[in-house]
Structures are given as C-alpha cells and as structure tokens.
C-alpha cells in the first residue's frame, strides 16, 4: 500500500497529538491521585453521625471528666446518646476481647493509659486512625491507631510549713543532699520517674540510676496512691514528695493547704487516649468523637474538666505543665519491666 507525503504528515501529526494527549492525561491523573482529598468538617461528620444516633465508649475517666466532657459533647452534638463503660484499662481490654471471641463488637471507642492502649493495639483491635486534628500532636502523643487526650506529670512538691522559703529543692538532684534524709516520700510504683530520667533528662541509664541511688540513701517513705500521697504531704507527714502528680497541687492550694510544687521539670506520661475499635457499630459517631476530642475545641473542654490537655496549643486551666517535660513514649513503655525491676532494686521495694 502506498501513501503520499501528505498522508504521512497527517498521521505523524496525529500520532504526536495522541501521544501528547495521553501524556497530559497521565500527568493530570497523577496530580489528581496525589492531591489531598477534601476532608469532611466536623459538622459534616456530625450529619452522618446523627444516623448512628449512639456512641459507646469504653474508657477509664474521672467522675469530673465524665460530667464535664460528656455534657459538652451532648450540647455540641445533640441527638448522639453516649453509653459509657468505666472500668480500669485491663478490665476494659478483657471485656473487649471476650466480646470479640463471641463474635460481637459492642464498643465504638477505647480509651485508657498508654500501656493498655498499646496492648489493645498489639492485639489488632483498633482501626487505623488518620484525622486532620492529629497533625498538631507531637510524635510521642500519637500513633497510627490512637492519640493522647491528656497527660500527667510527676514533679517535686513540698510542705511549706516544713520547708522554709529559700530552702526548697530546686531540682531532682537537690534531693540527693543529706539534709533531706528521712524527709522524702513517694509512690512505690512510680518507676516511670527512672524511665524519664534515663530516656529524657540524662539519656543514660547509669546517670539516672546513680541519682536515684543517692536519693535512696535519704531513706524515702513510700505510700500507695497518689491522692493519699498528696494528702500526707498536706498533713506534714514528710516534708517533700518526689513523685507527686502536678495536677494534685492547685486544688489543694486553693483550699489553703500549705503545699507547693516545682514546675521547672517533670516526667510526663499519657493519662488517656482515643482509639476506634475495629467493626465499631457506630463508626460515624466514633469518628465524630475522635475528631472533636483531638480538636482544640475538645481539648479546651478537657482542660475545663481539670485534665492536662495533650494538644500542645491548649493550656491547662491551672499551671501544672512543667517547663521541661520528659515525656514517655510507646517505645519507652516496651522497656517498663526492665526499669520497674531496677526501680525496686534501688529502693529495695518488694
């Protein structure tokens, strides 16, 4: 078959045009695929959540948080009924596992302290969670499956009737001074202090252990329960507490208690978290809860409930966040057994 020059030229041009068109289409498709999809607003998620009408939360929360946070959510999103199961983290996990074995998923949301959140994550019971509000959270306060809702800090505190002004400890290192012998107390299970020193403050196990060994020479007294520990400090049972919670001081100070805390440094840990269960019966309501709790609006409500918000841009109502905070991460939790053993050996705790 013969073809004249004009035909050849036409087909050459047509071929080039088709190639250019295909190239343009491919590039356009690639750009479209890489472009971020439009994210629903929280209010748009709410419209979908209305069809669920219910939200079941398995989470360990304080009585005040239950009242303040749930009431704020109900007011913001009327029409969503909250069913809350309040148990310790280990009991919540046992319940979820038992329900799963029976072929049922009754909870939408799980929330607890970091060790329990990691445990339920490792059992592959949480859905991947990628929401825009999590972008503001530092890496230590989130993962692919959860984010922290609140934090708590171990700090130094003292009884102002027993410690003269100007003689207060200025750091944890000060507690190694022999002048504090028989004047210190703490919680016997607070090995997180050792983890925070080893991983955050010193980045050295040896230096952290050395400091705590020198503090141990001052023979601290131990009491189980942080609320009780704070009350013993108020009562003047001992002059200084070296593992008290920062958030236990402001309410007692307001009532006239002679106590003060050192907020130049402290060891921090995740107090609570949010994760969505796989097969959640009310997925839109679960997503609404997660989006709202992670938002600055939701985190301000946590602050109003007396919690220390995990969101770095939301300050707690009272000044309880230390200037230097050595936050424990999920990687640190994996080493808890090692440091718990070291802690018990240092202070000779059985």
Architecture overview:
- The protein has 350 residues and is α/β, with parallel strands linked by helices.
- It has 2 domains: 42-151 and 270-309, 3-Layer(aba) Sandwich (D-Maltodextrin-Binding Protein, domain 2), CATH 3.40.190; 152-268 and 324-347, 3-Layer(aba) Sandwich (D-Maltodextrin-Binding Protein, domain 2), CATH 3.40.190.
- The chain has 13 helices and 10 strands.
- Strands 1, 2, 3, 4, 5, 6, 7, 8, 9 and 10 form a 10-stranded mixed sheet that branches.
- Strand 1, helix 3 (63-76) and strand 2 (81-85) form a beta-alpha-beta unit.
- Helix 2 runs antiparallel to helix 10 (283-294), helix 3 (63-76) packs antiparallel against helix 11 and helix 7 (205-216) packs parallel to helix 13 (336-347).
- The longest helix is centred in the N-terminal third of the chain and has 30 residues, at 5-34.
- The termini are far apart.
């Amino acid at each position: 078959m013969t073809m004249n020059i004009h035909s050849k030229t036409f087909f050459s041009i047509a071929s080039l045009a088709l190639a250019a068109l295909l190239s343009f289409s491919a590039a356009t498709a690639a750009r479209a695929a890489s472009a971020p999809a439009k994210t629903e607003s929280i209010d748009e998620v709410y419209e979908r959540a209305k069809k669920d009408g219910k939200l079941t939360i398995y989470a360990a929360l304080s009585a005040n948080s239950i009242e303040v946070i749930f009431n704020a959510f109900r007011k913001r999103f009327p029409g969503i009924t909250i069913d809350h199961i309040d148990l310790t983290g280990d009991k919540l996990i046992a319940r979820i596992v038992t329900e799963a074995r029976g072929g049922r998923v009754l909870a939408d949301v799980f929330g607890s302290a970091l060790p329990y959140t990691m445990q339920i994550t490792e059992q592959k019971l949480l859905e991947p969670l990628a929401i825009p509000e999590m972008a503001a959270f530092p890496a230590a306060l989130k993962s692919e499956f959860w984010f922290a809702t609140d934090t708590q800090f171990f700090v130094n505190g003292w009884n102002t009737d027993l410690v003269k002004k100007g003689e207060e400890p200025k750091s944890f290192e000060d507690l190694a001074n022999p002048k504090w012998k028989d004047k210190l107390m703490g919680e016997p299970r607070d090995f997180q202090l050792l983890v925070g020193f080893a991983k955050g403050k010193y980045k050295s196990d040896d230096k952290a252990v050395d400091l705590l060994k020198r503090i141990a020479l001052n023979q601290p007294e131990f009491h189980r329960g942080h609320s009780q520990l704070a009350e013993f400090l108020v009562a003047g049972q001992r002059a200084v507490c070296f593992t008290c919670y920062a958030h236990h001081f402001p309410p007692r100070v307001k009532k006239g208690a002679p106590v003060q805390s050192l907020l130049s440094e402290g060891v921090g840990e995740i107090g609570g978290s949010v994760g969505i269960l796989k097969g959640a019966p009310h997925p839109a309501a679960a997503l609404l809860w997660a989006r709202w709790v992670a938002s600055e609006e939701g985190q301000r409500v946590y602050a109003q409930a007396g919690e220390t918000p995990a969101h770095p841009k939301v300050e707690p109502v009272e000044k309880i966040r230390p200037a230097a905070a050595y936050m424990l991460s999920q990687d640190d939790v994996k080493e808890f057994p090692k440091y718990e053993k070291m802690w018990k050996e240092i202070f000779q705790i059985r």
